[in-house]
Amino acid sequence: MSKLTLYTPAPFRIRTIDTSTRTVSDPVSSLEGGLAPNQAGILLVDTPRSLVYRAGGSGSESVDEFDVSNPKSPTVAHLQAGKGAKLWCAALAGGFGQPAHVDQRLYCGGSDGFIYTFPLDSSGKTRKTNSAPAPYEVVEAHGRPIMDLAITSDGTHAFALIQSNDGKAAAVTKDLKPMPHPPGVHYLADRPQWNTIPSPEKITLTPDERHLIVTSFSQNKCTVIDTTTNKSYERSLAESAGWPVRVSNTTAYFLYAGQFHSVELASEEKKMGPKSGSGMVFFFAIGAGRVLFTRYDSKSMWCNLCDYDGNRESHISSEHSKNLPLEAHKDMAVGIGAIVEGG
Questions:
Q1: Residue 67 belongs to a domain
Q2: Angle formed at CA 30 by CA 29 and CA 34, multiple of 5 degrees
Q3: How far apart are the C-alpha atoms of 56 and 147, rounded to whole Å?
Q4: Structural domain that includes position 198
Q5: 119 near 110, Cβ under 8 Å?
Q6: What is the pLDDT of residues 89-113, one digit of tens each?
Q7: How confident is the model at residue 132 (pLDDT cuts 50, 70, 90)?
Q8: Is residue 287, in this structure, part of any structural domain at all?
Q9: Does the pLDDT at position 131 exceed 80?
Q10: What is the CB neighbour count within 10 angstroms for residue 316?
Q11: Phi, psi dihedral angles at 134 (to 5 degrees)
């Protein structure tokens, strides 16, 4: 497929990437605002419903829901936890046949150690609600922020990553039972829980849901957790982790400062991949088996697109010139965007 859709977080914009001409379009649409100046934003896509979610990444008043069913005129709603809690991250369960009490919910990690859930409304087209979202308390968090979440495909279990300098008991399993009544009573956190690398930032579940990979942006090691045996172990990486750009059942792929690298989950075999011609990376977007990344100076931006392992790299130009004017492409300067198939 020669057309990809690129969503960028700050500000939120929609662009088309044409892989046959190696160009990125001017924005189809744009929604300004919604994040503090120091927040880059991380995007999560609910493709079947044409919804895109934006989390601030370091705690914001809301997670923003963009309805992109009409790309030329998207709309935005703001999902809030209430109680003064900020939302750090967002996750979805991707499977079918989920229990009714968790079916197709959006899960958000709160600054207060709670997981907040936002169900679809009766129309099935939005998770915007006028009522307070159902919270699940992660008691082991002791009020610390939930940094990241991974949800099983059946929506019955959450793996919460708790803010921690030393990584002790930072990863916790949460059984998402039906909420009890009265609403003020919450289920406590469930076992097991695991120690991780220090200052963990990201938790990722493999497609077969057998392993969790815990990473920190600047560390050259990760924690791998076997969800079937509950054992955990560290894996050394060939480079600092950066961000996991793809996780298969057997391998985790990373991009850091323009360097692609990977690690085998079972054997600890680590590999250096291609070094990007663009060097330092300031923004990237992932999805559809691709990674797009940029760097820039005071006036211009350089943009590259490749496979998740760093191969088949190609330079991406604008529709008007070889390089991208920074002012016209400031949405591609910071944050973590998303790519989906189709223009």
A1: no
A2: 150
A3: 11
A4: 40-52+77-298+305-314
A5: no
A6: 999 987 777 887 778 899 999 999 9
A7: confident
A8: yes
A9: no
A10: 23
A11: -70, 125
